[in-house]
Amino acid sequence: MNPFAYITHPDCARHEIAPGHPEQPARIASVDAALRGAPEIAAALSAIEAPLAEPDSLCLAHDPDYVSTLLKLEPAPGEFIRLDPDTAINSYSLDAARRAAGAVMHAVDEVVLGKTARAFCNVRPPGHHAERDKAMGFCLFNSIAIGALHAIQQHGLQRVAVIDFDVHFGNGTSDILRDHGNILLLSSCQYPLYPLDEVPVAGRSEINIILPPESDGNAFREAAVSQWFSALEAYAPQLVLISAGFDAHADDPLAGLNWQADDYAWVTSEIVRLTGAAHGIVSSLEGGYNLDALGQCALAHVQALIA
What family does this belong to (predicted)? Predict the structure, then answer.
């Protein structure tokens, strides 16, 4: 068994919202360079090309009319079609978003079938703001939600944990998964911050850590120990999916928390420790907009995944 799968695709570095936008193509290269620059990681990286998710698979999490309408959009080369004030697509975007969803689904297959123990998907656009019938917050298709529902419907899993430590609340993931009987949803976020107008009310199997601006990694660690970990251990998930956003880092330009790379290493190590008997762990890139910090945090995360 290959102990680690690294899934990416060149299309994910061609999607662009607008020139100079912080959700930029260079994010993929920054993560890739950081991982390949670490000898112990580089030796484990045999990149798998992310497949295109089929429309029926996208409909696991999204309304069919939404999927059909979005896939009919065809921006000309150099053109941008705006979907909301924060979200636009170019001629590569829909393929990139389908690759991102396809990466997570393929990673789920590899892990559940025992071909690999853990996987990291270096893909974009991010997905956790995409709701059932709405693109928003840079996101088109909710890759993690699609992967979780794929694991349940295709592989018959009964207990899937979804963990989202992006600095922004994963409203789309909550919208799609919060009341699903086979999913435990754990998230952390800064409040107040996009997309929240008020503190979210948790679903029946959802635990949200809400952190005020300027919170450091110690505040998150204390909250994770007191609010997440006993629930995660008791749940004994068969599969863990991670929305790996690295924008809670102190240097990130789009938020106001003060985490460091060590905090991502710590939470990842704790997830690995608490779910060691699980079928495996699939992680997929969400936010992170300071390129140097993004590379450092992704490296710390992957090092902990493969330890």
Answer: Belongs to the histone deacetylase family.
